[in-house]
Design brief:
The chain starts with 8 loop residues before the first helix and ends in a 10-residue tail after the last helix. The protein has 323 residues and is an alpha+beta fold. A five-stranded antiparallel beta sheet has the order 1-2-3-5-4, with helices on one face. The chain is built from nine helices and nine strands. The relative contact order is 0.14. It has two domains: 9-103, Phosphorylase Kinase, domain 1 (2-Layer Sandwich); 115-321, Aminoglycoside phosphotransferase (APH), C-terminal lobe (Aminoglycoside 3'-phosphotransferase, Chain: A, domain 2), CATH 3.90.1200.10. A hairpin with a 2-residue loop joins strand 4 and strand 5 (97-103). The longest helix has 28 residues, at 263-290. The radius of gyration is 20 Å and the shape is globular. Helix 4 (145-155) packs parallel to helix 8 (263-290). The structure holds adenosine-5'-diphosphate (ADP) and the ligand N[C@@H](CCOP(=O)(O)O)C(=O)O. One of its GO terms (molecular function) is ATP binding. It is an enzyme of class 2 (transferase).
Length: 323
């Protein structure tokens, strides 16, 4: 996580007095991540994560995210569970921001993705989609296809003209092929299941198993296959931007073992992958020029997603991307 909002010792102790989770022993800001401010807390009762919600999170939507996490955990999915205060409320205010404490998950996210991470990942994604089915409330994807043209417009003045022209053309092509509402199965999707949001533990033979999924603050109700497309973007490219089809096959086959994709989903997978590349390219580009000076955050490189977009633009069908 990043730390945009500093929390003083006194403010944190007063905040914790609202909970029955023991006395504060230590806390530290977490530099990873880009969206919200996060602190690791150690109390006399264990480890917790404190999140202060920033910029992109609409406070009115926080009950939905926290409710979804509670629902998924109740279905047996390992994910952070919001911790209620003594009054039963999990969502509170701290340092002028909405804030919540969640349970801490053990494990580490993979700094280098290996093929052996990919089958557990595909399986976990399918389990997440199945577990979400019983959660009745829906949330529109605020960074879905109709958000991309306005986002590109907001980058126009600061973007390199050649890049903006390429993105204009790519976006028009994506939108022309984008699946119509109702054409593909929908459900609650994570929408940001990058390696830094998936924790693993390894056995003595270095065989990874998933210990939990985190960071549900982009979760929404959208096409299930779009979540797969996001995962293929985030997990299957090497540092030289080569697509690793072995990783993609492992993800797709483990996912398909739990929920076989429909023929329409297979047909749409290439354009969904282009759309997912466009979405992360655009938010990264926007953040590149708009990150507040002095924020404790590492900006992410938008051009990594230009390479992915170009790769998927040449993928004629799902077979080219591991299907
Ligand atoms: N429930 C949790 N258990 C353990 N660590 C967590 C938990 N939630 C967040 N973290 C830590 O915070 C980091 C960033 O969290 P994340 O939710 O991805 O932030 P952001 O929304 O800002 O991207 C993670 O990489 C991890 O180190
Ligand atoms: N995954 C996104 C940025 C969101 O960051 P996260 O730390 O919340 O996963 C990207 O890589 O652009």
């Amino acid at each position: 996580m990043a730390v945009y909002t500093e929390v003083t010792d006194e403010a944190l102790r007063a905040f914790l007095a609202e909970y029955g989770i023991g006395e504060l022993q230590a806390y530290r800001g977490i530099a990873e991540g880009v969206e919200n401010s996060n602190y690791a807390l150690k109390t006399t009762q264990g480890d917790f994560i404190l999140t202060l919600y920033e910029k992109r999170v609409d406070p009115a939507e926080l009950p939905w995210f926290l409710g979804l996490m509670r629902h998924l955990a109740a279905q047996g999915l390992s994910c952070p569970e919001p911790v209620p205060g003594r009054d039963g409320a999990a969502l509170r205010q701290l340092a002028g921001r909405p804030a919540a404490i969640c349970t801490f998950l053990p494990g580490f996210w993979p700094r280098r993705v290996r093929p052996s991470h990919c089958a557990p990942l595909g399986d976990a994604l399918a389990r997440l989609h199945a577990a979400g089915m019983g959660f009745p409330a829906t949330r529109k994807n605020g960074l879905g296809a109709e958000a991309w043209a306005p986002l590109l417009d907001r980058c126009r003045a600061d973007g390199e003209p050649g890049l903006i022209a390429e993105l204009d053309a790519a976006l028009a092509a994506i939108l022309a092929e984008w699946p119509a509402p109702g054409a593909l199965p929908i459900g609650h999707i994570h929408a940001d299941l990058f390696p830094d949001n998936v924790f693993f533990l390894e056995d003595a033979g270095r065989r990874p198993r998933i210990s939990g999924l985190i960071d549900f603050y982009f979760a929404c109700t959208d096409m299930l296959a779009y979540d797969i497309a996001i995962v293929l973007n985030a997990w299957c490219f090497e540092s030289d931007y080569q697509f690793n089809v072995t990783k993609a096959r492992a993800i797709l086959s483990a996912y398909g073992a739990r929920r076989p994709l429909t023929p329409a989903e297979w047909a749409a997978l290439p354009v969904l992958c282009r759309g997912a590349a466009m979405r992360f390219l655009l938010t990264r580009l926007y953040d590149w020029v708009n990150t507040p000076p002095g924020a404790m955050v590492t900006r992410k490189d938008p051009l990594e997603y230009l390479h992915r977009l170009r790769f998927f633009a040449h993928a004629r069908d799902a077979a080219a991307i591991g299907g």
